Amino acid sequence: MENSWIIFQKLLVLFGFMLLGTFSYKRRWLTDDGASQISRLIVNIFNPALIITGITSSDGSYSWSSVMTNTLLAVILFASLVAVSPLFVRVLRIKSSMRNMYSVMLIFSNLGFMGIPLIEALYGKTAIFYVGMYTLVFNILFYTYGFYLFEKERTSEKVHFQWKKLINPGVFACLVSLVIFSLRPEVPGTAVDFLDYLGGAAVPLSMMMTGVSLAKMSLREVFTEWKMYQFTFVKMLVIPVIAGLIIRNFSVDPMLAGIMVLMYGMPNGSMPVMLAVDYGMDSSLCSRGIVLTTLLSLITLPIVTYLI
């Protein structure tokens, strides 16, 4: 129960940032162009810095066995979501024209911007590095399988993947973290402080951008789509609970097991929206999914936390 209360309090802080973003957009302190520029700064500067601080600001209590176990759990998480997504969209009776979009929303959650502060609140700064491994697997899968699903949605032609898409600041930050972990160099205090300040901006700004998305929508649109409630219930409660029950049967470090279960329960991520816009597709479904799942996480995440 104590962990659930910690998560609930942290979520209230994150929701405060989100409401601040909504208010700023409504007051025209923040424009569409400004929000777009801030999003690029988050993706390319602030979030990569946040990932690196997971190792530079930690107490160094990592071992290769724990890192490998954590990475394996990250691979299992995404592999299981990819495997169940075809069944998932059929059980929910999603229209065939929307199945790929729902699959993308199921698989690619907000592991970084919400996952990092919540995991840090429970397990300390050391755990940020472990979340970074999930984001590394996320990036590799998103720029391969995620692109494939979007291409499949847009065209019936054969899909060709471009490996250069994997070269991005998020993947680079994860690789830098791995190098620092492997070599254990003495990182200058000034560099640590610099990265801490940069990384500290990622979470409030990213939640403010979610608030901007909320400001652009009709609340009636967000709260009257019954199919999205079904989606949220299965994605953010049923699947994490099943994962938690299964992982109890294995001798896995409680912190690593807890991180994995919480990763299953995270709300929708913003990357699918950005990709939908980039592909010239209707991004409203993904946007509504982000807002509703983020709002409902105030209820679902404390419940999931109670079970770990």
Automatic annotation (TrEMBL):
Keywords: Cell membrane, Membrane, Transmembrane, Transmembrane helix, Transport
Major place of residence: membrane
Protein name per UniProt: AEC family transporter
InterPro entries named in the record: Mem_transp_PIN-like, Na+/solute_symporter_sf
Compartmental location: Cell membrane
Membrane topology of this protein: Multi-pass membrane protein
GO biological process: transmembrane transport
GO CC annotations on file: plasma membrane
Keyword Transmembrane on entry: yes
Family: Belongs to the auxin efflux carrier (TC 2.A.69) family.
Residues annotated as transmembrane: 6-25, 37-55, 67-89, 101-121, 127-145, 166-185, 197-219, 231-250, 256-277, 289-307
